[in-house]
Amino acid sequence: MSIFSYLLPKKQRTASVAKERLQIIVARERSMRGGPDYLPQLQEELLAVVRKYVPVSPESVNVQVDRDSGCEILELNITLQDHQDA
Amino acid sequence: MTRIVVVTSGKGGVGKTTTSAALATGLALRGFRTAVIDFDVGLRNLDLIMGCERRVVYDLVNVINGDANIRQALIKDKRVDNLFILPASQTRDKDALTQEGVEKVLNALRDDMAMDFIICDSPAGIEKGALMAAYFADEAVVVTNPEVSSVRDSDRMLGILASKTRIAEQGGGDIPARLLLTRYSPERVMRGEMLSVEDVQDILAVELLGVIPESQAVLSASNAGSPVILDTDSDAGQAYLDAVARFLGEDLPHRFLTTGKKGLLGRLFGGQ
Ligand SMILES: Nc1ncnc2c1ncn2[C@@H]1O[C@H](COP(=O)(O)OP(=O)(O)O)[C@@H](O)[C@H]1O
Ligand SMILES: [Mg+2]
């Protein structure tokens, strides 16, 4: 995008909004990719269980599969909200 | 050696068939024996874009089922030497495309018909038809519009190409994939209303084969049943000619990325 477009009123610069949204969604989808097919459902169900105890939003759960010389690591990260006394 | 190329995207209506027709015609114009196959079973339209719809007798599924041989089914283009079209069938039976069947057709095109290039025009989606079109490919052209859902679907398709081709299954890794950004409007990019070619490249991180501008010539070409690459006076036709040259390894600068008519500010600050 040219510098010129930054001189435009904000609501016309929808392209930069599009780019930001894409960067987020694509990163999210890539982290799930290549993993087993049950991953999305696993994520859903884990979220449901965690929610019984603490309020968490769908974005705060991140499931990722890493391959490391022959062994697979399933990584689950849940970011809890700030002062949460679980 | 025969090169099998899949033209794919995930999303529908982005320009795969327009691109398949242009790429195949462009390669044939360069003297390569080229076949273009419509994999959109049930919704064929490559024959219309190529202007050979009244000459269709047999189709892809007929060859797979053994009702016709490849020679009977291939339609030889009347304008360009070395160019052949294999239409899709109108059958609604999606299971008509089998992996063995597709392999048989590709082998016949390679061994009996001595094709240099086989262009596979993929249907939309990430289901069977699209997977079949991609499975035997040696390389891919991913057609993308500068628009969120198209870019996201292209990224998904790149993920599929990395794991669901024969080459990937045999441990050969990702097949080379290149990006063709189509329906590009430099005016709208300049106004910040449309993702720029740099934006899309940042996200998809694959080599850029070309940028095809949004062009009225594409509709005129499809009205006439003549691939737009034959309209060498048009912007889209020239952009496709450039893309074919790059496809063959030539190093050409990208064109049609800026507006012809720029104001002073645009000239001072305009992006590439
Ligand atoms: N560069 C372009 N400029 C204008 N219209 C285009 C361009 N490329 C494709 N189109 C139009 O977009 C529509 C979809 O194109 P098509 O090649 O059939 O897409 P797909 O095969 O991906 O579904 C058609 O109406 C076509 O004329
Ligand atoms: Mg199509």
Instruction: Categorize the overall geometry of chain A.
Output: flat
- Point out poorly predicted stretches of chain B: none
Separate helix tally of chain A: 2
Biggest β-sheet description of chain A: 2 strands, antiparallel
Alpha-carbon Rg of chain B, integer: 18 Å
Strand content of chain A: 15-25%
Which molecules are bound besides the chains? adenosine-5'-diphosphate, magnesium ion
| Strands in their spatial order, largest beta sheet of chain B | 3-4-2-5-1-6-7-8
Q: Helices and strands of chain A: which structural class?
A: alpha+beta
- SSE pattern of chain B: EHEHHHEEHEHEHHEHHEHHH
Give the structural class of chain B.
Answer: alpha/beta
What Rg of chain A is obtained from the alpha carbons, in whole angstroms?
18 Å
Number of beta-strand segments of chain A: 2
Shape field of chain B: globular
| Helical coverage of chain A, percent range | 25-40%
Biggest interface, residues from each chain: A-B, 24 and 27 residues
Helix content of chain B: 40-55%
Trace the largest sheet of chain A across and list its strands: 1-2
The succession of helices and strands of chain A, N to C, reads HHEE
